[in-house]
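Hi F.,

I've been meaning to write this up properly since the lab meeting, where we talked about keeping a consistent format for the predictions we share between groups. The idea is simple: the sequence comes first, exactly as it goes in, then the structure tokens exactly as they come out, then a line or two of notes. No screenshots and no reformatting. I'm using this chain as the first example so we have something concrete to point to.
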Amino acid sequence: MKQPMNLTVKTLLLVVWGLLYAGLGFAQGNSSFLVVTDQFPPYSYLHKGQLTGVAVDIVSELIHRTGYPGKIVVRPWERVLKHAGEQQKMLFPFTRRPYREKHYKWIGPILDDRFVVSVPASDTKIYQAMADVRTLRIGVVRSTPTEARLRALEFPHIQPVSAETLNAKKLIMGQRIDAWYSSWLIMKHTIRITGLDERKIRIAVNDVNVQMYIGASLGIPDETVHRWQHHLDDMHADGTYARILKKNSIEWNEPLRLSHP
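Output, unedited:
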């Protein structure tokens, strides 16, 4: 009779420890959600099989500081947003726009950027506002905030594609689009990695400043969101954030080549 009794005691102890561990994980709020990104160079992208980018560096430091036990997961953005309610997630880099505001809890900002319209350098017309480029065929990446903004403005000639490199090549080669609408950092990076001549395009309109955040599912506890925000604030205070920007060659004092050719 002793052996069954010992087995029973061991089983009960395992169950108790399991419940305590699960309770601790729930209280920390760290093991009940995924941290997800997609390939958005230069924010986040795969290079030689390794996930890299300025947003990845920032979030990786946050993961280290908060003690989150998992790794960053790379998944197609369209699929993630379509099934956003199926599992608790932290999404980054996530543009904070009015149509998203009530659907997420927000940590950040983790990055500042701006939406701009570029045209071929051979286009010598002066554009002063978005209304001036309304009649142009504008390349944009589908299912992104840039596409959403153009559709909200009811632009009639939006040309969605799957990747920014396609827009860069089409614009510079004069194929099927008259302008390219994206963020300034994305344009810079795209031109660099494709080896295209940046002198062949210019910034025609500086549209709106945007901020990138981590968008947390509403089911993630407030205390978890606050803890991540606290550690992000600490990164600013101790200089870590500035060092990450410098490492990724992001400086905001370089001039934009605006409207005048």
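Notes:
The two ends are 92 Å apart (CA to CA).
The CA atoms of residues 169 and 175 lie 8 Å apart.

If this format works for you, I'll send the rest the same way.

G.
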